[in-house]
Amino acid sequence: MNVSHDKDVALDQALDLFWKQGYASTSLKDLERATGMHPGSLYAAFGSKAKLYCLSLERYATRLSALRAELQVQAASPLDGLADFIAKAHPLSDADAPLPVCYLVKATLETSKGNQAIEDKLSDLLTQNDATFAAVFQQAIDAGDLPANSDAKKLARQLSADLAGLCFYALRETDAAVIKEMVTDLTDQVRRRH
Amino acid sequence: MNVSHDKDVALDQALDLFWKQGYASTSLKDLERATGMHPGSLYAAFGSKAKLYCLSLERYATRLSALRAELQVQAASPLDGLADFIAKAHPLSDADAPLPVCYLVKATLETSKGNQAIEDKLSDLLTQNDATFAAVFQQAIDAGDLPANSDAKKLARQLSADLAGLCFYALRETDAAVIKEMVTDLTDQVRRRH
DNA sequence: TTGCCACTTGAGCGATCACTCAAGTTGCCC
DNA sequence: GGGCAACTTGAGTGATCGCTCAAGTGGCAA
């Protein structure tokens, strides 16, 4: 009996698995099990393991970016929007996330051998993310919420690093209250940058 | 012709390779090439790939800890010692480091599937590291360098996360000056915590 | 109903994985 | 020099890797 598969659903399932296990530790057998697709179908749909991984990274980044944009328009100010995003996007606040670590951060730290295409894709996505952070900080500067001599790019860099640090700690710490406090500290810091 | 091997040297070479490539992406063939040892000798000396990895993590942590202790006794104050450690220990300042990322941070973010022994070892080493950070902060509090109501454990947590964030960013950023600035910002922050 | 085509299937490809062990080599003691 | 324990060697183990493709299946137009 043949079973028809939804490429979109399968990609989500692959995303979760890659997120949880990492690229190198996830075999096609694992992906087969998770998606219910047989190897032939997987390759017809996605081309290769590496391409599927890149697609999953892209999808994750797109979703994160969409959430950020949505919170931005609802927020009272650019910095409030960013703070809301940090509070809401952090995987601990997302019950569906397989790990309390940003997928992109985990992927960055684990990728190293071989596949240049994956590294390029990751670099692209992270650079893009930094750029949107910087744009928001610039808006805050223009709106007078931050001193005129603030460096938007530097603030974006710092936020990016702070979020990564948060991810690292969240993966280790089992006490949710501790992480919650760290998230709050970071959002507070973003709201009243100086 | 048989070649006698130095277990200590081989462990260092394995450390570098694991650091660069990650555990899952490093094969025994890679380790064979790097150490010059044949599989039989590797197994006689280290038992298994996982045990070799654990040993390399331990060695790295021990070295880092020794460096921290050494800088501590030389420094004018506990916080100065910690700041010196951050400045000096960061892989960008260490020409021998294969990557500008703390080995333990990278290992934490990449480990996920299977081997419980590795995760336990990592958790141990990181917890130990946090504890020494906390102890130093406590010394600073006792010495009056920090307000009496400071939370040493929280400060240690924050520093641990900040260092991880730094690692993440250092892996992406190609401009050494940018990283240098981030390191300086962090050391300054440690020196005058409040 | 028939013929066609797009999609699914899964056995199986060569390569590589972590790991073993019998055979070979070495160095030391007597 | 002979004997032996300790170490090194690397071909080989079965399992699994990412991936292919000929055969099978289902849906639709005529």
Automatic annotation (TrEMBL), chains A, B:
Name under which the protein is recorded: Transcriptional regulator, TetR family
Pfam family, one: TetR_C_13
Residue span, HTH tetR-type domain: 4-64
SUPFAM superfamilies listed in its UniProt record: Homeodomain-like, Tetracyclin repressor-like, C-terminal domain
UniProt keyword annotations, A-Z: DNA-binding, Transcription, Transcription regulation
Signal peptide positions on this chain: none
DNA-binding region: 27-46
InterPro entries in the cross-refs: Homeodomain-like_sf, HTH_TetR, Tet_transcr_reg_TetR-rel_C_sf, TetR_C
